[in-house]
Amino acid sequence: MFLLFVLSVPKYNLPAVISYASFPLLLITAADIPVKPLLHRLLLLSPFVLLMAAANPWLDRRPFFDLFGITVSGGVISGMVIVVKSMVTMIALQLLTLLVPFYRLALALKRVGVPELFVTQLLLVYRYSFLLAKEAGAMKRARDMRSFGGKGKDLFTTAKLIGSLLIRTTARAEKIYMAMTARGFQHGLAEKAETPPFTRVDIAALFFSFLSFLAVRMVFIH
Known about the structure:
By secondary structure, the chain is mainly α. The protein contains 10 helices and 2 strands. β1 and β2 form a beta hairpin.
């Protein structure tokens, strides 16, 4: 719901987007979430965001307003809106994954009608992506220990390592699937999970959030 409100802000309304950024900041402060990891992930994704907004000043050169004698075009404003929108939505998604366990997110997807097969695939990918990262890290360390003088780090060797990682991952996946089947796996991890009830507190929280987001929209968007 929050993402829909943020993404629906008009392309020239920078104050509205900045005002929506107050909600993630309030959540970060209330939950005492470390800011450095969030900023680190934003910095990793910032080149792609800046690339999306880079063409706007050239595509939209219509004068928007004057600031101390400098004419600011509409493309500059719309580009800034794109950047701020992207930052706010990425921070909101990061907060969602930090505060809500992935298994609860999968159960929520199941409750809204997402197919069981897709939910199970998401759970398996999330659960075993850590094993894949560990395996890739071990292969990288082994390559670095055997690469004297920078040898062995060329593109051809890297391609072979990726192929080897794929083969090893496939073999590991088959073993894991056989072990799960032997323990009664029925092609669905969340099919027998207990779904937490939807209480009045949840309804009140949703209603209050909706009113807060709507109030910001009514104040800044006419």
